[in-house]
Amino acid sequence: MSRRPAVAVTGLGVRCAAGATPAALWESLVECRPATSLHAFDDEGTVVGPASAMTDFDPAGYLSPKEVRRADRSVQMAVCAAVDAVADAGGLHVPPGRRAVVTGTGYGGVISQENGIGHPDVLYAPRLMHNAGAYWISARLGITGPSLTVSTACASGTHAVGEAMQMIRTGCADVVVAGGHDSPLTPTTALAFGRAGAMVTECEDPAAASRPFDVGRRGFVLAEGAAFLVLERLDLARARGARIHATLTGYGRNSDAHHLTAPHPDGAGARACMEQALADAGTTADAVTQVNAHGTGTELNDLAEARAIAALFGPAGVPVTASKSVTGHGLGVAGALEAVITAMSVREGLAPPTASLTRLDPRCEIDVVTAEPRKIPNGPVISNSFAFGGHNACVVFDSPHG
Predict the structure, then answer these.
(1) Catalytic residue, candidates 159, 245, 264, 294
(2) Which residue from 203, 187, 104 is spatially nearest to 151, judged by alpha carbons?
(3) FRET pair for 249, CA 20 to 30 Å: which of 187, 195, 204, 257?
């Protein structure tokens, strides 16, 4: 049996409230600077709550005015982030047929969908379809190989990254542009999550609204954005002298099959998913230097994930970071954004702190990094996504070897 090719991360690109570039995002993370403020979800200001909105987003220079009119806001963000990732990688150095794209989105073009109900124009359907981002990216970047869209709620971005790695491993592509995008800041979305009790609707300090693992948490903070990685066969990346941020070494995915929205309370599915990803990476739990938690700030998710982490790594056995304390929760983009963050953690040798955590829930027997970044040694870092529908996905990054 031939040895499967190793996979390098050669390009990173993001658009989110916490940063329009990976460098700006990293600065927000290490400085514990949440990108959350009060946001009016509707023009009348009747639906207001904390959110991580990218108020200064501008696709000019990436899309023409005509193209902007044809693409939902989430897709506009996706094109910007994907193009930046490819620029960061120094281009795509394989023939168009050996390139692929995998996008993840939970809500697709929900802004376009909500705005067009009752009076759709001729572009209504292509604006709202979930695979629109994959189309725009493939067309912009000359990708004629596989083009795929994954929609598994809040695990979409992680699934996209993992499936992209599998494409390279199985030989159907040499370079894959992979990531996620969502822009769900609509009044209907906010009202729905708020009424379900999953989203923070009121808080004393909007900047501290996202508080994963804290006793005072009240749910997640809705966010928007896009994040993409360029994944490349490691041998090809090295041959062209590419800068390698990290290697992508493992991927796990399974399902709880327990409840439509709630995770299995003992975290059994989450633990099994992490174990699967580590086995795929050819490593073990005791080698892991950090966990980037799904960490939404909802009671059920935090408790289930903390139990899974403590069961696998031992109580307080590994440093844990909850990036959503800074970025908010962008649904389909979340896992991709955290994949970018995890790759940067590996590159920098730092676990970013979890913002706004003042008192750890004593039921969460985990070592959450707070206040300032913590140095971590070279070694595998795992990023978790556990979604509505019981969809679990985990990816493992490591430093380049050799």
Answers:
(1) 294
(2) 104
(3) 257
